[in-house]
């Protein structure tokens, strides 16, 4: 008893669908890893920016304090 062409096509199409879904699952996993790495990189950049602002802010405060002391000394003369 030979199979009809229609009986052979449907299993083949189902197999192709399964393989395609597995391939997309693999691609999605890779994209998720890339997105996570990108997220970590953005967080690191944000942290670095905040640290830079903190250091610069601290420096500016110290500079302002020195300028006030200098003004006080100049006024005392």
Account of the protein in words:
The chain is built from one helix and no strands. The radius of gyration is 33 Å and the shape is rod-shaped. With 77 residues, it is mostly helical.
SSE order and pairing:
Elements (H helix, E strand, L loop, with lengths): L4 H72 L1
In whole angstroms, how far apart are the ends?
116 Å
Overall outline: rod-shaped
Alpha-beta classification: mainly alpha
Helical residue percent?
over 70%
Low-confidence parts, pLDDT < 50 over ≥5 residues?
none
Major sheet details: none
- Rg over CA atoms: 33 Å
Order of helices and strands: H
Strand content: under 5%
Tally of alpha and pi helices: 1
Question: What's this model, at a glance?
Answer:
It contains 1 helix and no strands. With 77 residues, it is an all-alpha fold.
């Amino acid at each position: 008893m030979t199979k009809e062409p229609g009986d052979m096509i449907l299993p083949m199409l189902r197999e192709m669908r399964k393989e395609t879904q597995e391939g997309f699952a693999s691609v999605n996993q890779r994209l998720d890893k890339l997105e996570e790495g990108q997220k970590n990189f953005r967080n690191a950049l944000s942290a670095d920016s905040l640290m830079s602002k903190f250091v610069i802010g601290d420096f500016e405060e110290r500079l302002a304090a020195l300028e006030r002391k200098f003004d006080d000394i100049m006024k005392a003369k």
